[in-house]
Amino acid sequence: MEQEKQIKIVEVSPRDGLQNEKEILPPEKKKELIESLCETGVDEIEVGSFVSPKAVPQMKDTDNLLLMINKKNGVKFSVLIPNMKGFERMMNIPESKRPEKIAVFTAASDTFNLKNINATVEDSFKIIKPVIEEAKKLKFEVRAYISTAFWCPFEGKVKPEKVIYVAEKLFELGVDEVSVGDTIGRASPKDVSELLSLLLKKISRDKIALHFHNTYGMAVLNSFISFRDFGIRTFDSSAGGLGGCPFAPGASGNVATEDLIFMFENSGVKTGVDFKKVMSAVLKLEIPLRSSLSKIQKIIE
Ligand code: COA
Ligand code: ZN
Predict the structure, then answer these.
(1) Which of 75, 163, 233, 279 is paired with 271 by a 20 to 30 Å CA distance?
(2) Looking at ligand 1, which atom is closest to the CA of residue 117?
């Protein structure tokens, strides 16, 4: 019998990872990556987004990709949706090929949000409200991302009060889960502790995921602290440490799934994920990897 998992991994490399790679991968390559990731033990995979192809050309073929993928092992799929137009594009896919979860997104700082989605935080609530309503009516699970929850590349340190305000608003709108994002990978363990100690007074830890990027090398440590000190159990990560946000200058990739799994498993925390399989899935892409483990060739031999 499978040992009980203590951590849930949301694998975001096909979306957060590949949206920031210069090379636009053909859907066949993405399909291969996603099907291999289904074999690693991760719980969820964010397979792509339905944003404007002008804004993020790397994600323009998410429709085709979903038609091509053969889903395996009961892994849950999600897609990032910015507005009703994106939702309608997703609904055009035959039901059997649709993901069971969608993710809407906003931020905790206006300057970043304007650059990312051309809307202030307040305006973004109006844009995503009908998406959340429709999605819930049709029994999709709904996640919402809060980008720049610790630091904004344009406004500097973001106040926890702002993040709490946005999170509460998102739950009022009906989302099931909020993923709190360190979009530019600038958060220190102190920043994480400060935000979580305030946020968890208002919102149950079971409804919060954390989404760390690794620009300053803090992402694994921040994940550990979130789990050990605050009981957070859902973490977003990207195989190979791929990723970043095209609208956040200087930001590096997500926390690498293999580094995160290695850290948790070797600290006695069950994840159910095989980090060697994660590495072999992403090595097939022949993209330079940014994880710490990828530098140690011996591990995967
Ligand atoms: N999918 C495809 N095209 C879309 C779209 C969607 N979800 N939403 C809007 N568009 C198209 C419109 O049809 C319109 O096309 P046209 O110029 O040919 O008429 C054009 O985009 C502008 O539409 P508008 O509603 O005014 O959008 P906008 O210019 O304010 O842009 C977003 C808003 C959200 C669509 C855009 O900023 C975007 O896609 N950002 C990417 C965000 C992202 O993925 N960031 C990384 C992840 S955090
Ligand atoms: Zn991200």
Answers:
(1) 163
(2) 37
pLDDT in tens, 236-268: 999 999 986 778 777 889 999 999 999 999 999
* Mutational pocket test of ligand 1: of 19, 21, 51, the residue with most ligand atoms within 8 Å of the beta carbon: 51
51 lines ligand 1 (CB under 6 A): yes
Polymer length of the chain: 301
Reported pTM: 0.97
Nearest to 7 by CA among 210, 294, 203, 144: 210
pLDDT tens digits along 108-119:
999 999 999 999
- Give domain 2-300's CATH superfamily: Aldolase class I (3.20.20.70)
User: Which pLDDT tens digit goes with each residue over 34-62?
Assistant: 999 999 999 999 999 999 999 999 999 99
Q: How far apart are CA 192 and CA 234, in angstroms?
A: 15
Question: Which atom of ligand 1 lies nearest, measured to the CA of 145?
Answer: 48
Ligand at minimal distance from the CA of 219 is 2
HSE on the CB side for 167, CA within 13 Å? 27
What does the domain layout of the chain look like in residue ranges?
Answer: 2-300
Radius of gyration of the chain (CA): 18
